[in-house]
Amino acid sequence: MSAGNPPNLKQQGITLLSAVLSLFILYTCATGPFESIIQRAIFLAILICLGVLYYPLWEGKKIRPLGMVVDTGMVLMSLTACVYVIVNYDMIMTTLPMAKPRDIVMMAALSLVILEIARRAIGYVFPTIVVIILSYALLGEYIPGRLGHRGFDIYFVTETLFLGDLGVWGMLMGVAATIIAAFTLFGSILLNTGGGQTFIDLAMRLGGRAPGGGAKIATIASGLFGMVSGSAVANVATTGNFTIPLMKRLGYPPPMAAGTEAVASTGGQLAPPIMGAAAFIMAEIIGVEYVTIILAASLPAFLFYLGVFMTIDVMAKEHDLGSLPDADVPPWKDILYWRRLTPVVVALGALFVGIFRGNAIQTAAFYGMAAALIAFPVTRIKSPADLLPAMDQITKAFKDSSRGLLIIGILLAGAQIMVAMINMTGLGITLSSLIVSLGGDSVFLVAFIVAVVCMIMGMGIPTTAAYVLVAAVLAPAMIKMGIAPIVAHLFVFYYATLSVITPPVCIAVFVGSGIAETEWTKTAKYALSFGAVTYVIPFLFIIYPGMLAQAGLEGFCRAAFSGILFVLAFANLFGGLKISGNRLVDKLLCLVIAVLAVLPGLWTSMVALLMTIALYVRRRQLKARRLKLTA
């Protein structure tokens, strides 16, 4: 089933299955999904087949023939289990089936295959966590103290995981097989039909000639890519291969180039409309409309990018970092060339038309995908010779989406096993009670404990799976303290996401450092400086619920005012603003402004505003004086 066979045969298999998966998504978006378990079983079956092709066992080794046998067995066992639940859908959904030995075998085989493909794709950390929680469900009666429970036998676990819609076929897989699948394919089509190059050129045009232009290009481009890609690490690998060498060429220290890209790419996980697929999952868990989630996440995402952008600006002006030469900045006529821009505009236009008409989210995504797939060949094919390159680009879109969906889908299948066991054993409630008892009556102490645990639990795990884990275990602790569910879930989501730039296991930093060919510890230092404000923004959700559009227009404006002042203060602090000649005094001034900005009082915010204006006026005066002395 892969290497061992001719390489082109493996690629042909990936291309074929990617097309099958994409057509399945397009069909179910257009006509509506199949019955719940049927939709999810078909989706998972295709992903598992793709998994053994993308990540073949022992590829390139002498024992690869044995690996082919294992891969074939994995596919056959998984297909058997998926076909079984499809054929027996009515029995599973209308009765309470009792598990038989064959059900136990199929459940165990399917779970092992899911965890094995997850191991091949992202490493040991996540599968190990799932195995631990599964073991906890089976052996809880032997655990003393508050963490112990009555224990569940293998038959009950099988009935929960395999013979119902609470386990493998649960809500997370339902979201993955419908909404996430639709938007992942939409994003891939958008990027491969002109959006990718348009995003890069737009970033170069908007930020390239400003102070710190190279870093600002990375921030804008990574933000645009990240809004539709849904993976911080993939975003670093994609845009970083362009932006990091560019920054190094302009004279940026390699660790700074890598740190900038790592942070900017992480922000794509926090920015609507996809938020690394978390927006859809969060809407399902909380029970609110998807639009409510993206509206709530909009201002915090803006503050994140404002913080990164302004930190770069301050650092660039203080250290005279290079900008892009005029000759390298693409002209507007190239960026807005109708043949390249039309597929992007019609795709986004059709998507928003579908949303505003009140269509289902995946139906709106279908409108966007269909519009792009029609507009792209129409605008690109000027002669028969253009047909093959256009088809290759669409094929690449299908393959890119299949790789992204493989990781997301398999992770959510594993996460669904984990969540089912957490709910079944009451582990989430137990841990929430422990955290609340540890924090006492202090909301902020409980929030601080939750934040630290979130970052620890998210280390080494992709964002989507990390969010699912902390949402099940930690969000209830905050809700128990009286915090609104949407505030609690966005709070834990932010800290789970920040784990990719937080040492010691900071995956986005590792990838960026590899591209920049520098030490990851130095990169992490820059990443923490650029992303510093993001470690505090979630606490502003608690102080100002209006930041998440939860307190009307007045509350939203008040939160935005305080948030912007706070972000500017942090940008000056970590960018190294110099106005007094004394480094300690400069940092204290910035800290005072930051504290005044977030205190819940209009007068303190006004004082912070006046102090911020004074800082910028002083900096302008110092710059004018330096220029005069130079002259």
The main sheet comes to: none
Determine Rg (CA atoms, Å).
25 Å
How far apart are the termini?
A: 71 Å
- Overall mean confidence score, pLDDT: 86
H/E element sequence: HHHHHHHHHHHHHHHHHHHHHHHHHHHH
Q: Strand share of the residues?
A: under 5%
Broad structural category = mainly alpha
Helix segment count?
A: 28
Low-pLDDT runs: 1-6
Overall geometry comes to: globular
Estimated helix fraction: over 70%
How many individual β-strands?
0
In short:
This protein has 631 residues and is mainly α. It has 28 helices and no strands.
List the helices and strands and how they pair.
Blueprint: H1 7-31, H2 36-54, H3 64-87, H4 89-94, H5 101-122, H6 125-139, H7 154-161, H8 171-207, H9 213-229, H10 232-249, H11 254-270, H12 278-286, H13 290-319, H14 332-335, H15 338-356, H16 361-380, H17 387-425, H18 427-439, H19 443-458, H20 463-473, H21 475-480, H22 485-498, H23 507-516, H24 520-530, H25 537-543, H26 552-575, H27 583-598, H28 602-630
Helix pairs in contact: 1-2, 1-8, 1-16, 1-17, 2-3, 2-8, 2-17, 3-5, 5-6, 5-7, 5-17, 6-17, 8-9, 8-15, 8-16, 8-17, 9-10, 9-11, 9-13, 10-11, 10-23, 11-13, 11-23, 11-24, 12-13, 13-26, 15-16, 16-17, 17-20, 18-19, 19-22, 20-22, 22-25, 23-24, 26-27, 26-28, 27-28
